[in-house]
Design goal:
- There is one protein chain.
- The protein has a single domain, classed as TIM Barrel, CATH 3.20.20.
- Helices cover about 55% and strands about 15% of the residues.
- It has an eight-stranded parallel β-sheet with strand order 1-2-3-4-5-6-7-8.
- Helix 2 packs across helix 3.
- The model has no long low-confidence stretch (mean pLDDT about 95).
- The structure holds hypoxanthine and zinc ion.
- The site of zinc ion has 6 residues, from strand 1.
């Protein structure tokens, strides 16, 4: 392993764009499927991995929603979440803001309570046994109606002590942000942090529209912003964080390969870019794998890595005091180990 990879492995970061259902590794999917007697189209983990070839976002979502059908009980959601948290902590992730998609479970007859109690049990355990803190962001599926989204927002209000934010995910094409304007207004009135996927398969105009109609604090992905100079100026000026997921973008063919990725150009343009793993069980790597692959292909240097790690905490919803603690930890790490 080269020196930069070693530096990346040790640096503390936050992860802000992670779908918990996207951490369902094929081995766990197969074993939970057996436990719950849910049939899967794959006989074993290896053949599942082989089938994970995606031509675009929708081709991935079809496989992803099918796989989540094995998740039925509180124990399943606990097992899923604790496995991810252990993995994240082992990669020196200090803080995670995790997405979950309750509608992909409730429409199969799994109750909201089952999902959130399983996730929360893993959070409580992690907070006392692992060196990382956790927050939960409930995503609204944008291919469903706003009325259905508002119903699940009502559930979130009942569990507000465990839910920090509201996000928007699933198919961007054909489901513009303005479809959810009332829902996001309501979420903000209720004091939730709000974020939304935009500019992944959508263009720069989709990002602009998301900012102007939903008034979110962060944009998830956002890589297509670079097509519009005035939008980039605005994002830089306001330091709106963009939670970029390099391996996801390559696997979903947003970019042909990692060398074509615009992450470095975004970073050097002054955007508040962060690196995240999105759905690591499907895209070939967790957060530090994303850092390492991007660093290799784009020839990122040590200062780029430090900036990306700093941005991850700056862009988080942690208190200013906690942000300072982690930013100081990065300075100590960078100074002591490798200057
Ligand atoms: N984009 C949109 N919806 C998603 C994604 C994504 O990358 N991952 C899981 N749901
Ligand atoms: Zn995502």
């Amino acid at each position: 392993m080269n020196q930069l990879s070693q530096f990346i492995e040790g640096i503390p970061t936050a992860e802000l764009h992670l779908h918990i259902e996207g951490t369902l590794e094929p081995e766990l999917m197969i074993s939970i499927g057996k436990r719950n007697k849910v049939a899967l189209p794959y006989p074993d983990a290896e053949s599942a991995r082989k089938a994970y070839n995606f031509s675009d976002l929708q081709s991935f979502l079809n496989i992803y929603y099918r796989a989540t059908a094995v998740l039925l009980t509180e124990e399943d959601f606990y097992d899923l979440t604790i496995a991810y948290l252990k993995k994240a902590a082992s990669q020196n992730v200090r803080h995670v803001e995790i997405f979950f998609d309750p509608q992909s479970h409730t429409r199969r007859g799994v109750t909201f309570e089952t999902v959130i109690k399983g996730i929360e049990r893993a959070f409580v355990e992690a907070n006392s046994t692992l060196t990382l803190s956790t927050k939960l962001i409930m995503c609204i599926l944008r291919h469903l109606s706003e009325v259905e989204g508002l119903e699940v927002l009502e559930k979130a209000l009942e569990w507000k002590q465990w839910i920090a934010g509201i996000g928007l995910d699933s198919a961007e094409r054909g489901n513009p942000p303005e479809k959810f304007q009332h829902l996001f207004e309501r979420a903000q009135r209720e004091g939730f942090l709000t974020v939304a996927h935009a500019g992944e398969e959508g263009n720069a105009a989709s990002i602009k529209k998301t900012l102007d109609t939903l008034h979110v604090s962060r944009i998830d992905h956002g890589v297509h912003c670079m097509e519009d100079n005035s939008l980039v100026d605005e994002l830089v000026l306001r330091q709106i964080p963009l939670t970029v997921c390099p391996l996801s973008n390559v696997r979903l063919q947003v970019f042909k390969n990692m060398k074509q990725h615009n992450l470095k150009a975004m970073l050097h343009r002054g955007l508040c870019v962060t690196i995240n793993s999105d759905d690591p069980a499907y895209f070939g790597g967790y957060i530090k794998d994303n850092y390492i692959e991007a660093a290799k292909a784009l020839m990122l240097d040590r200062d780029d890595i430090i900036r990306l790690a700093q941005n991850s905490f700056i862009a988080s919803s942690l208190s200013e005091t906690h942000k300072k603690l982690y930013l100081n930890e990065i300075i100590r790490y960078a100074g002591h180990e490798y200057s």
